[in-house]
Amino acid sequence: LDIVILVFVPVLFLSMRIGQLQDSASIMSKVIGDEGLGGVPWASTDMLLDAKMARFFDGLGELQDHVVGEQRMRVLAFVSAMLLLLRVILATKAHPRTAVLVTTIEKAADDLWH
């Protein structure tokens, strides 16, 4: 479990995050730029309103998908940080004086949770 917390979770997070950040500019220019939301020809009389609305809501849905992906990455970062914090707290159990504190927190965890 220690190897998973120390190595696997941060490597997983960073590999996912770096890929997202590298693609971020091109994705946002596609979603918000002339190909996406910014390119809907609202003033055009050649395109029907239904087609304009469909194009707009398709772009909006794609933008929302990217926002949800960002929220998931925040949750993953939070979980990673909490796992590392938990590991630090449990590692302090090695010293007898701090072990008293950690044991107290462990016994009170259920009450603290609620």
Q: How would you portray this structure in words?
A:
By secondary structure, the protein is mainly alpha-helical. 81% of the residues lie in helices and 0% in strands. The chain is built from 3 helices and no strands. It has helices spanning 2-32, 49-91, 96-113. The model has no long low-confidence stretch (mean pLDDT 88).
Shape: elongated
| Proportion of beta-strand residues | under 5%
Provide the structure class: mainly alpha
Helix content: over 70%
**SSE pattern, N- to C-terminal:** HHH
Q: How many angstroms separate the termini?
A: 26 Å
Give unreliable regions as ranges: none
**Gyration radius, in Å:** 24 Å
Write down how many β-strands occur, each being a DSSP E stretch of 2 or more residues.
0
Query: How many individual helices?
Result: 3
Mean pLDDT figure? 88
Main sheet? Answer: none
Key features of this structure:
about 110 residues, single chain, mainly alpha, 3 helices, about 80% helix
Short description:
With 114 residues, this protein is mainly alpha-helical. It has 3 helices and no strands. The radius of gyration is 24 Å and the shape is elongated.
Write the layout of secondary structure elements.
Layout lengths: L1 H31 L16 H43 L4 H18 L1
